Amino acid sequence: MALWDVWTKIAAGPVAFEAPSAGFALDWLTLQALRRRDVGFAILTRAPGVSSTGDPALDSRLPFDEPYRIPGRTAMQLARAKLRGSRIIAIGTSVVRALEAAANPDGSARAGNGIATGRIARGTRLRVVDAILTGVHQPGESHFELLRAFTDDAQLAKASAAFAAYRYRTHEFGDSMLLHRQQNRAEVPETKALLEAWL
């Protein structure tokens, strides 16, 4: 298959080792429908890495550092959204890593180039991102560990059991889920319902 056959419909040029697969759930018609409902959309550039190599020793070192660039306009949009009390929904684990690496103490994000070097896992305090649209990840993968920053292990175990029971496809070309941080889950049910309707 050609590179463009496996690239996301809404992404710009392919600059990463792995396609930004969370974006497979979105297309331009979906984004247009979201905008009609006053859901904002901001962009950043990041180079996502792999979530699993299949080698346990190597996987324990994942995720590798991921370069990113947050445009000034995106940083301003995030700051305005936070001031309005709006939720920030990241499209994929690499977007979470980029935004949290660029996080200011007030929950805004710094514009510019950077490298996400940290591992996000259970106990990580998320300052920018409120929810994540992501693929279905398996326990043991670094991407699954990142989900532990959003919810507890009991909820992830229930989700994993449901994914297995209903034969959800995992990761790159698989199914998607929308996961809210537990403490903020009830704040904007309309946005949650709207996004889940398209998944």
Descriptive labels:
199 residues, three-stranded mixed β-sheet, 7 helices, 32% helix, alpha+beta, three-stranded antiparallel β-sheet, single chain, globular, QueA-like, disordered C terminus
Layout of helices and strands, plus pairs?
Layout: H1 28-36, E1 45-46, H2 56-59, E2 66-70, H3 72-84, E3 89-91, H4 93-101, E4 112-116, E5 131-135, H5 142-147, H6 153-165, E6 176-180, H7 189-198
Parallel strand pairs: 3-5
Antiparallel strand pairs: 1-2, 2-4, 5-6
Describe the structure.
The protein has 199 residues and is α+β, with helices and mostly antiparallel strands. It has a single domain (22-198), classed as QueA-like. It has 7 helices and 6 strands, in the order H-E-H-E-H-E-H-E-E-H-H-E-H. The chain has helices spanning 28-36, 56-59, 72-84, 93-101, 142-147, 153-165, 189-198, and strands at residues 45-46, 66-70, 89-91, 112-116, 131-135, 176-180. The strands form 2 sheets. A 3-stranded antiparallel beta sheet has the order 1-2-4. A 3-stranded mixed beta sheet has the order 3-5-6, with helices on both faces.
What is the fold-level CATH name, i.e. the topology? Answer: QueA-like
Please give the radius of gyration in angstroms. Answer: 16 Å
The main sheet comes to:
3 strands, antiparallel
| Global morphology | globular
- CATH evolutionary superfamily: QueA-like
Structural class label: alpha+beta
State the distance separating the first and last CA atoms.
25 Å
Identify the CATH architecture: 3-Layer(aba) Sandwich
What is the share of helical residues? Answer: 25-40%
Strand content: 5-15%
Number of domains: 1
The overall strand count is 6
Oligomer: single chain
The number of helical segments is 7
Poorly predicted runs are 184-199
Strand arrangement in the largest pleated sheet: 1-2-4
Please report the first level of CATH classification, the CATH class: Alpha Beta
The overall pLDDT average reads 82
Order of SSEs: HEHEHEHEEHHEH
